[in-house]
Amino acid sequence: MDLQKIGSLAFIVGLVIAVAFGLFMEAGGTTIWILAFLGLVVGLLNVTHGEAHGYLVASIAFMLSANSLTMLLPMIGNALKNVVTFVAPGAAIVAIRALYDIAKSK
């Protein structure tokens, strides 16, 4: 299995876990660590150099809007918080890679 497929699978599994635990049960410490790990895998394996800008913009937009949506729709608030927990580590990895690419090109 190539790395791109592993990254895609990590993305799907992470979203399913985040939403399922957010809607049907409370996400504990282990679930949060699993979501963070899967987010790192997605950031490392699934986002190419050309996709970095779009991924970062979408991640930032989602994380900011999730806060407001959590207040407006409290019944899905836990699911949104879990998705943010999943997306944030990947966004951090992609942002660090983008900063490194910018710094080395100068």
Can you give a write-up of this model?
The protein is 84% helix and 0% strand. The chain has 106 residues and is mainly alpha-helical. The termini are far apart. The mean pLDDT is 88.
Q: How many strands in all?
A: 0
SSE pattern, N- to C-terminal: HHHH
The percentage of residues in β strands lies in: under 5%
Spatial separation of the terminal alpha carbons: 36 Å
Major β-sheet profile: none
SS field, number of helical segments: 4
Task: Give the integer mean of the pLDDT values.
Answer: 88
Shape verdict: globular
What does the radius of gyration come to?
Answer: 14 Å
Task: Give the helix/strand class.
Answer: mainly alpha
Tell me the helix content.
over 70%
**What are the low-pLDDT stretches, counting only 5+ consecutive residues below 50?**
none
Summarize this structure briefly.
84% of the residues lie in helices and 0% in strands. It is mainly alpha-helical.
Structure characteristics:
single chain, mainly alpha, 106 residues
Strand-helix topology:
Layout: H1 3-24, H2 29-45, H3 52-72, H4 77-105
Helix pairs in contact: 1-2, 1-4, 2-4, 3-4
